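DM from R.C. (forwarded with permission)

"hey, sorry to bug you on a friday — could you get me a structure for this? deadline for the figure draft is monday and I only need the backbone to look sensible"
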Amino acid sequence: MARSGRELVDRMGDLLSTGDVSALVVMYARDAEVVLYHRSAVGRDESRDLLAASLASLVLYKVVSVDQFRETADIVMWDATVEREEGILETTHIVILDDDGLIRRHIPRIRGYWGM
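My reply, with the result:
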């Protein structure tokens, strides 16, 4: 599953936009961790549940732009502007990859919100 960091970011954005959690979770290692302030998930099953719960209430999720991007050997981080039905979000993501290019840790965060 080796792909560039930018391809990973674009693929994640596409899958989040369509709500395809099954395809999204395949990008995660079997023992992956998703770490939020209010909750963490360990493993694909918990990660799938967390992502599905996060997307379940969304009518619209569209990545408008990737505003900053940085990639090193095993870390991909980016800031993105995202459109949702209730407004615009600025998000930050940090992803640590394993040796196979799968997501080992994902730390997403909302930095700002502007309601419509």
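R.C.: lifesaver. Residues 21 and 52 are 6 Å apart (CA to CA).
me: no worries. The mean pLDDT is 89.
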